[in-house]
Specification:
alpha/beta; 6-stranded parallel sheet; Rossmann fold; 305 residues; 37% helix
């Protein structure tokens, strides 16, 4: 059985789709999978079971990237195509069954819309797939030495979604004052722009582990899985943290938590006051973030007992 799964160009949306993929993996244990996604998201599927190919869709003028996808897929008879991009490409392929999500943004949680495509209620939670080597490397970077590793994600894909850097520092120092075993891990994406956004936090937390922005998506997932807590802006990193199952606090102001709240068993949001989806991040209060983080950690500890 051959399944074609067309998912997002953006990392966060692609992460939200992994729960649906995991459902299909269990539903069709003899199937192989071809993933079509954007280059930024491609690494997310590197260790997915039964993935035979990832087709990276690079946007081209006049939607020619869809023609490219058709050319690469036309030689296969697909038993099932799941298309989260709302395209018509599968109608020009040999496909047994199609599940096509309507394009465009809609009210309500993105993960719910994804689950509705296969009539799944509740929607399946995102997952991550990492290799044994990545998990071993993560254990070396974040050893079991008594530290409680706190991951901070102070960057995002545009500046309007970013909480002021000094407030990340204040939150961490406040949490560590009550728990000296806490140590910071600073996560950010590749490139100088991302590093520049993280630089203030790194400068003010000199004992932090600087992950350098050069790790693959799945290497970061392996690191996150060893952390006690993630606090970060609405970003792909936030969704990745929630997908690993660790306590995750997502910070929202200029984006809608009602659509893109982190999805995971221990995920919470803190929203800046103001118009929904257009509230300045500067209005988000440090005390609210600290309280949310402490309550989340306490809930998680109680659940372990």
């Amino acid at each position: 059985m051959h399944i074609l799964f067309i998912t997002s160009t953006r990392l966060g949306d692609a992460i939200l789709s992994t729960g649906l993929l995991d459902t299909l993996l269990h539903r069709y244990p003899q199937a192989d999978f071809t993933i079509a996604c954007g280059p930024v998201a491609a690494g997310l599927f590197a260790h997915m079971p039964r993935r035979v190919r990832t087709i990276e869709m690079v946007k081209r003028p006049r939607d020619m990237h869809w023609v490219d996808l058709w050319r690469q897929c036309r030689g296969t008879r697909w038993d099932l195509c799941v298309d989260l991009r709302g395209s018509i490409v599968s109608y020009f392929l040999r496909v047994g069954r199609r599940h096509i999500m309507r394009g465009g943004r809609r009210e309500g949680r993105r993960i719910t819309h994804i689950g509705n495509l296969l009539d799944l209620d509740p929607a399946p939670m995102p997952v991550t797939w990492t290799s044994a080597g990545e998990r071993a490397r993560a254990a070396a970077m974040l050893p079991d030495d008594g530290s409680r590793w706190i991951a901070l994600g102070p960057t995002a894909n545009w500046d309007g979604k970013i909480w002021p850097a000094d407030r990340f520092v204040t939150v961490f120092n406040t949490l560590r004052a009550a728990d000296p075993a806490m140590r910071p891990v600073i996560l950010y994406g590749p490139g100088e722009a991302e590093r520049a956004r993280a630089r203030t936090v790194l400068a003010q937390l000199p004992d932090a582990l600087d992950t350098g922005g050069a790790l693959s998506v799945t290497q970061v997932a392996a690191l996150l899985a060893r952390c006690t807590l993630f606090i970060g802006n609405d970003s792909g990193l936030m969704h990745l943290a929630a997908a690993t199952g660790i306590p995750t606090v997502g910070l929202f102001g200029r984006s809608k938590a009602s659509e893109y709240a982190p999805a995971g068993p221990w995920a919470r949001v803190v929203m800046a006051p103001g118009p929904v989806g257009n509230a300045p991040m500067e209005g988000l209060d440090v005390a609210n973030v600290v309280t949310t983080a402490r309550c989340l950690l306490a809930d998680r500890e109680r659940a372990k007992r």
